[in-house]
Amino acid sequence: MLKVNDISRSFGDKRVLDGVSFDVEPGRMTGFLGANGAGKTTTMRIMLGVLKSDSGTVTWNGDPVTQTVRQRFGYMPEERGLYPKMKVAEQISWFGRLHGMSAAKAASNTDALLEELDLHERAGDKLEALSLGNQQRAQIAASLVHEPELLILDEPFSGLDPIAVETVLRVLRRRAAGGVPVLFSSHQLSVVERLCDDLVIISGGSIKASGGKDELRERFGTPRYEIVVGSDAGWLRDMPGIRVTTVDGPRAVIEPAVAGGFRDGGEPLDQRVLKEAMSRGDVRAFTPLVPSLDEIFKEAI
User: Fold this and answer.
1) Where are the beta strands (DSSP E) in 77-217?
2) Please, which residues have CB within 8 angstroms of residue 96's CB and are 6 or more apart in sequence?
3) What percent of the chain has pLDDT over 90?
4) Which of 224, 264, 272, 285 is a plausible cystine mate for 255, CB 3.0–4.6 Å?
C-alpha cells in the first residue's frame, strides 16, 4: 500500500498542498480528482520524489519511499516525456533497461505491451509519426514495461478516442486485477466512474473526500428514487415529506424534503410512498437512483 500522510507544500508564499492524506491500496483503482490547480500533479510529483514536501511523509508498505523503491514504480506524466525521433519499440525497451531489466526481458515486455495496446504495427515507427492518441498509448507502455509494483498516471486518457480509451481501460484493469495499486487523475468523470474503486477529491490543496466509490455515494449523494406508476404521477407533489424533482406523465423522481432522508424516524418514507402508490393502482418501477460522480464531486468541493 502507498500511504500519503499529512503532506504540505508551498511555492513561495502560496500554499499549494495543505495536510494531504490518503491511501492507494493493492489491487484497487483510485481516481484522483480535482480542478486544474487543485494540487493533483504536485502531490504525484512528491509521491515520486520529483518534488520534496515541506512536511509529511510518503510510505510504501510501511517504509519510507527511497530512490530504490521508486525504481519499482510506474509513472506517466501529463506532459509527454518520450523522444519524438526515436522508434517506438526501441525507446519503450530502453525505458525497461533504465529500470534495470535485461535487454531480452525489456524487448519481450515491449513486444507484449505493444500487442496489448494495439500498437504492434507501429513498433518500428518514430514517435513523431504517430497520432497524439497513439503517442499517449506509447507513453502508457513506457510506464508499464518494467512491470511496476505501483502505477501513478497523470491524465492517462487525454487525447484518446473512445476505442483507445477502452483499450487502455482493459490494460489498467488487468494490472489492478494482478494486485497492483493504481492511482490516476482524469478530467473525464465518466471514465473515472467506470474504472475506479476508490476516489480521492482534492480542492485548493486539501482533500475534501476520500474512500470507496459506493461509500462516497452514500455520504455525498442526495437519496432519490424513480417511480413509474400506471397513471399520472402528479399526486406525488401533495405527499408530505418528499420533494418531486421531475414529473413526466407516469414517471417521477423524488427526494426527501428534509436533510434526514427517506429513513428519518418512524416508518421509512420511501415505504410510505410505495404503499400510497400501490393503493392508487399499478406500480411499474420503484428504483433508487445512484448519484453520479459529477454530483459527488460538486457536493464534495
Assistant:
1) 150-154, 182-185, 198-203, 206-212
2) 105, 106, 107, 109, 110, 145, 146
3) 71
4) 224
Neighbour count for residue 229 (Cβ, 10 Å): 21
Residue 40 has pLDDT above 90, yes or no: yes
For CATH 3.40.50.300, list the domain ranges present in the chain: 2-218
Quick one: CATH architecture of 221-300?
A: 2-Layer Sandwich (3.30)
* CATH number, span 2-218: 3.40.50.300
**Burial class for 246, CB neighbours closer than 10 Å (0-12, 13-18, 19+):** exposed
- Is-above-0.70 flag for pTM? yes
Contact 6, 56 (CB under 8 A): yes
Q: How far, in Å, CA of 239 to CA of 271, rounded? A: 13
| Distant-in-sequence, close-in-space partners of 240: CB < 8 Å, separation ≥ 6 | 257
Place of cell 509529511: 56
| Of the candidate ranges 66-70, 228-232, 234-238, the one whose mean pLDDT is the lowest | 66-70
On average, the pLDDT of the chain sits at 91
Tell me which amino acid residue 116 is.
E
Q: What is the mean pLDDT of residues 70-80?
A: 88
Question: SS3 of 60, please?
Answer: strand
Give the DSSP letter string of 158-199: TT--HHHHHHHHHHHHHHHHTT--EEEE-S-HHHHHHH-SEE
Number of Cβ within 10 Å of residue 267's Cβ equals: 9
